[in-house]
Amino acid sequence: xxxxxxxxxxxxxxxxxxxxxxxxxxxxxxxxxxxxxxxxxxxxxxxxxxxxxxxxxxxxxxxxxxxxxxxxxxxxxxxxxxxxxxxxxxxxxxxxxxxxxxxxxxxxxxxxxxxxxxxxxxxxxxxxxxxxxxxxxxxxxxxxxxxxxxxxxxxxxxxxxxxxxxxxxxxxxxxxxxxxxxxxxxxxxxxxxxxxxxxxxxxxxxxxxxxxxxxxxxxxxxxxxxxxxxxxxxxxxxxxxxxxxxxxxxxxxxxxxxxxxxxxxxxxxxxxxxxxxxxxxxxxxxxxxxxxxxxxxxxxxxxxxxxxxxxxxxxxxxxxxxxxxxxxxxxxxxxxxxxxxxxxxxxxxxxxxxxxxxxxxxxxxxxxxxxxxxxxxxxxxxxxxxxxxxxxxxxxxxxxxxxxxxxxxxxxxxxxxxxxxxxxxxxxxxxxxxxxxxxxxxxxxxxxxxxxxxxxxxxxxxxxxxxxxxxxxxxxxxxxxxxxxxxxxxxxxxxxxxxxxxxxxxxxxxxxxxxxxxxxxxxxxxxxxxxxxxxxxxxxxxxxxxxxxxxxxxxxxxxxxxxxxxxxxxxxxxxxxxxxxxxxxxxxxxxxxxxxxxxxxxx
Amino acid sequence: xxxxxxxxxxxxxxxxxxxxxxxxxxxxxxxxxxxxxxxxxxxxxxxxxxxxxxxxxxxxxxxxxxxxxxxxxxxxxxxxxxxxxxxxxxxxxxxxxxxxxxxxxxxxxxxxxxxxxxxxxxxxxxxx
Lengths: 603, 128
Known about the structure:
The structure holds 2 protein chains of 2 kinds.
Chain A: H1 4-14, H2 17-83, H3 88-112, H4 116-135, H5 138-214, H6 228-268, E1 273-276, E2 282-285, H7 287-295, H8 304-316, E3 329-333, E4 336-349, E5 352-362, H9 364-400, H10 408-438, E6 446-449, H11 451-461, H12 463-468, E7 472-476, E8 484-487, H13 488-505, E9 511-519, E10 523-529, H14 561-571, E11 575-579, E12 587-593, H15 597-602
Parallel strand pairs in A: 7-9
Antiparallel strand pairs in A: 1-2, 1-5, 3-4, 4-5, 6-8, 9-10, 10-12, 11-12
Helix pairs in contact in A: 2-3, 2-5, 3-4, 4-5, 5-6, 9-10, 10-14, 11-13, 13-14
Chain B: E1 10-14, H1 18-29, E2 34-38, H2 41-50, E3 55-59, H3 67-76, E4 83-87, H4 92-100, E5 105-108, H5 113-127
Parallel strand pairs in B: 1-2, 1-3, 3-4, 4-5
């Protein structure tokens, strides 16, 4: 039962209002029809009754005739008896019979008489008859005869008139009832049709309006001018449309302004910007992008390398923001080498990436400056390193006292100078390393390795430092973690550097955690977390800058460790970030592709 | 000049930096070795043609000839004198090239006296 209910309601909903309204009137029409039939039958019966009544009146008439006849016989009998008095006994019997007959007829007449006048006349007749029975006078017969005649005439005269009228009325009323009933039905149906129409018209108008709004024709208005619920509906609909229209006009204006703003901004932007749709087609490009395509001699289509970056951003589900100048792409434009840093930003729609906005940042000048700077660093470092080596050796020789004994004061000075020299040499070593990495002059020796081995090697190197601060190391590296393709020495250096930082900044008796897992886009992610003070938000990116130190964190180390680490990770096609941690402590994330770019391209 | 010391070895130090040559000389002289110095690769080759040496210490970065070039010329002459290479920027390519030319050791600057002494004694023993 319960299962059929929704079906029914569904069907109810499907029945058009027109039909429902029509069927709403059907019972009314049926009642009217039943009433018409009923009244017709009733009238039939009533007219039958009248007919019967008329028949009765007719019988009064007949009775009167018979009484007249009887009176005539009586009169003739009485006349005869006056002529022959002797035959009285026979005649008496005959007279008695006649009287009895008349009496019976009178009785019948009494019963039949319905009208008051009739009754009065019949009463008079009865009195006359009684007197006659006592007197047996011929004169009384004449009186009775007159009365009977009057009764006959009385009964006959209205009867004829009434009969005609009734006949007519009977016929007319039947026709009138039939015609009236039919007319009522027609009028009823017409009224129903009108009503249905009058209800449906505004509803149709509302529907029409709704369809118009759906098509965006918000200036459409429903005809007003009727009160009641439908009037309210139409006026509120119009109000809604007006508000929507206003809103849309406002929105349209905003969109137009936004469009102008976008166009102006994009147009004013000196770097090529491409907006790709889902299918990788260019949806929008700024004038700089058009010019760029023309200059690199690519007619319309973007180079494959750009499409690859777009696909990589989609695959990794992240914006691709370059971390350094080593990620540049170069093209020859008007005979000069120009380099661009690609930046791919996902355009998200409903949480899934739809298109990609790709900005090619022209960094030719930056790169030139960077090259000059790197060359400078290289040259200066070399120039510093060579004399510093002899300084260091000299100080070492003095400190060894192989050339002669030192006094306590001399020794103190020599040792301090030696420490500073060594620190200076470390800085120069790191700087040179960094400039080589940045210039891409530090070729990586890739090897298929399990991250676990790498972390173990790095951890072994700092076991002593961990023990000194009573820190424990917790490794969460699944055994089934896929291997990765890295320069083992370099990557071990990165992990070791991150562990050293954790060791240095986290408090004693804390735990340092290293976690590795598979990340999206066929990548591996290594996290190094500590329970130290963490990296303040504003320095999260700056700590990778050369020589940057978080204020108040001392000046130990060269200030180049994290820069070198990032360069190494980037040389692997990965990224190194300092992340926000919900609790206390720092978190460094190393994301590495499982395979190096060259290898992936070869395959 | 002092032939009386049994452990005495004749060593040629080739470096364009006089301060470093001085540091090398003092480091090695303490051990009783006899040290000659050259400031250029060309001078070293001439010196090697005139005298026999037990060991050559060659700097990679020099204005005229690179250390590896000097080493190559030495080997081309058929000399099997042990050679220790010293470099401030020992790239793996240079190190490999030196190894192929039978270099006894490759030291990276900064070098401590201790490192130099142990490399020298190892080289002399292997060359003896």
